[in-house]
């Protein structure tokens, strides 16, 4: 019994080095394929001797033979060397050498035949139809495009497939820019205004006093739109978005010209024609005297309701020339 037990132990100890050698060979093949792929990425080309040394390790199924080694096989074949000797000298299989020589006989080239692979779900015609749909409906979501594509092409398509197809169409999803909307009447007014002032010189534009007002939210605004938290902190009060229905705000008016900056005025609440005239008297007229020093100038403001009121236009008509604004 003891002898039998010792024999089994000895047999197991003999198999262990064999398993270790197999593991080492597999890891060496994996590392060799990794080194070869990295070399192809950086453009490194091995010499024939290096490939001969590396060919001692059996390449994986489907691994292409380097063009330099293919060229060497064809050269030896044209010199009259047999296929068996070529395979033995280059340490390749006879079937590999036979396939390369047969392809050279048939086509006269040594290039690798392109593999078939899996065909794409959407062909070129489908991609053109998808591109036309995406350009027509630019604001559609990927889910809406996927639903349309499944009904139109009568194929089972996923959202990821449509994502890849959109990229193949040389399109990409972007966040749209924000721009004020202009109707056709406003666009025509802007065009006529630009055409009327096309011949203005730089000196003429330097005589313009530009003005505008803007509204600023004081307390909350748009703070808290994004927060850094864990999944469990969604109900933490510090992770909430602060928002109110009517946040406190301030109205700021200012003016400037090519000569420098004018005064800045801040007030609370809304503005009407009477309050706007007070702002012009207290801030616009002193800024004009400070910037232009008695020289003639042109005042510019937009077409807001307090600006186009009858009392405002009559007050401005007696004191300063106003630049007509298209919108």
Summarize the structure.
By secondary structure, the chain is of the alpha/beta class. Helices cover 51% and strands 10% of the residues.
What do these coordinates show?
With 327 residues, the protein is of the alpha/beta class. It has 3 domains: 17-107, Winged helix-like DNA-binding domain superfamily/Winged helix DNA-binding domain (Arc Repressor Mutant, subunit A, Orthogonal Bundle); 124-168; 187-322, Ribonuclease H-like superfamily/Ribonuclease H (Nucleotidyltransferase, domain 5), CATH 3.30.420. Helix content is 51%, strand content 10%. The protein contains 13 helices and 5 strands. A 5-stranded mixed β-sheet has the order 3-2-1-4-5, with helices on one face. The radius of gyration is 40 Å and the shape is elongated. InterPro entries: Homeodomain-like_sf (IPR009057), InsJ-like_HTH (IPR055247), RNaseH_sf (IPR036397), WH-like_DNA-bd_sf (IPR036388). GO terms for molecular function: nucleic acid binding. Residues 70-119 form the Insertion element IS150 protein InsJ-like helix-turn-helix domain.
């Amino acid at each position: 019994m003891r002898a039998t037990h010792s024999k089994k132990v000895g047999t197991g100890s003999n198999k262990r080095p064999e398993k270790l050698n197999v593991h080492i060979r597999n890891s060496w093949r994996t590392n060799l394929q990794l080194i070869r792929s990295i070399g192809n990425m950086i453009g490194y080309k091995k010499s024939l001797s290096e490939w001969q040394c590396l060919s001692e390790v059996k390449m994986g199924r489907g691994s292409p033979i380097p063009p330099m080694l293919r060229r060497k096989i064809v050269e030896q074949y044209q010199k009259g060397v047999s296929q068996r000797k070529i395979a033995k000298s280059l340490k390749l299989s006879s079937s590999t050498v036979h396939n390369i020589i047969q392809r050279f006989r048939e086509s006269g080239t040594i290039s690798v035949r392109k593999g078939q692979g899996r065909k794409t779900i959407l062909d070129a015609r489908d991609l053109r139809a998808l591109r036309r749909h995406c350009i027509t409906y630019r604001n559609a979501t990927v889910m809406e495009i996927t639903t349309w594509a499944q009904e139109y092409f009568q194929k089972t398509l996923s959202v990821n497939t449509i994502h890849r197809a959109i990229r193949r169409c040389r399109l990409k999803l972007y966040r749209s820019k924000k721009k004020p909307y202009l109707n056709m009447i406003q666009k025509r007014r802007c065009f006529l205004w630009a055409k009327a002032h096309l011949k203005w010189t730089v000196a003429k534009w330097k005589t313009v006093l530009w003005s505008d007002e803007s509204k600023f939210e004081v307390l909350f605004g748009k703070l808290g739109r994004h927060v850094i938290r864990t999944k469990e902190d969604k109900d933490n009060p510090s992770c909430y978005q602060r928002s109110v229905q009517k946040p406190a705000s301030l109205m700021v008016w200012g003016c400037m010209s090519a000569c420098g900056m004018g005064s800045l005025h801040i007030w609370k609440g809304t503005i009407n024609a009477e309050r706007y005239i007070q702002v012009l008297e207290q801030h616009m007229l002193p800024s004009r005297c400070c910037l232009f020093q008695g020289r003639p100038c042109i005042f510019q403001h937009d077409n807001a309701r307090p600006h186009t009121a009858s009392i405002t236009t009559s007050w401005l008509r007696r004191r300063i020339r106003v630049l007509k604004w298209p919108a």
